[in-house]
Amino acid sequence: MAIELFSIGTELVLGQIQDTNAHWIAQQILQLGGELRRVTMLRDDFDEMTEALDSAIQRETSLILTTGGLGPTPDDMTVAVVASLIGTKPIVCNDTIAEYRKRRKMSENDPLNEALTKMATVPETAEVFQNPAGWAPCISVNHQESTIMMMPGPPREMKSIFETHIQPLIVERYRAEISTARVHVSMFEAEVSPLMQKVMERHPEVYLKAYVSLRETGEGSMPVDLVSTSNDKDESETQLRTAIEYFKELVIEAGKSFSLKEQS
User: Fold this and answer.
1) What does the pLDDT look like over 105-141, one tens digit per residue?
2) Which residues constitute the domain of residue 113?
3) 218 shares its domain with 112
4) Last residue of a domain, one of 122, 138, 173
5) CA distances from 249 to 2, 7, 211 (A)
C-alpha cells in the first residue's frame, strides 16, 4: 500500500524553485499513517514523465501523487502524459467549465479563454475534484493496481486540494498509527550507526534516523529520531518505548550519554 510522489517542473530540477510541496506532503503522509516510498523530481518532458509514472505503476504503487503540470502553458503536460499512459484521450470536463462560469459570474454564452479550457481538460476516464483555492482541479484516475491523483503546483492550491480531497483517501486506505520520539546521543555518526542498525534489526517496525547536520560541535550531542508504525496506537507506542529502551542500553554500554527530548 505504498505511496509515491512526483514533483513535475523543469524549474524544480534546475533549482530555480525549491520543492517545498514535497517536504510538506511527506510530513502530512507520515502524520496520516501512510507509507511514502519515494519522491521523484521530473522535468517537463513527455517521455521522461511517461517512463517515470509507468515505472511506479509497474511497481504496483497503490497511490501515485503528482504536483505540477496542470497549468495553461505548453510545458504543462501532466494530463496528456497520464491520458496516453492509461490508453485514453483528454477531454474537457463540463463540470469544471460550469464551476469556472459560476465563479466568474459568466453566462453560458460567454466564451472561455484557452487557458481556462486547457486547465479544465482531463483524461476521459478521470474523476474530477474541483479546486477550492484556484483553477486547475484535482484529477484522479485508476489504472491497473494504482490510483493516480494529480494536483496543481502552486503551494496554496496544492495544500487546499490535499487537505480536501487526498487526506481523507489516505486515512481511509491506510489507517496506520504513528508514534515518534527524538533522543540525543553524545556520539558521532560512525559510532551510532551500528547501534541504530541493531535496534532496527530487533524492532523492524521502528525506523531510526540520525541528523548529522544538527549535531552540536565538539563533544556535543546528535539528535536521532525514532518512528514506530502500527495499525494500533497502543501497539505503536509500546513498540516505540521498547525500541527507545534498547537503544538507550546500547548507547550507555558504549560509554556515551543518552537523553529523551521529545515524544509524540
Assistant:
1) 998 888 889 999 999 999 999 999 999 999 999 999 9
2) 2-173
3) no
4) 173
5) 33, 41, 20
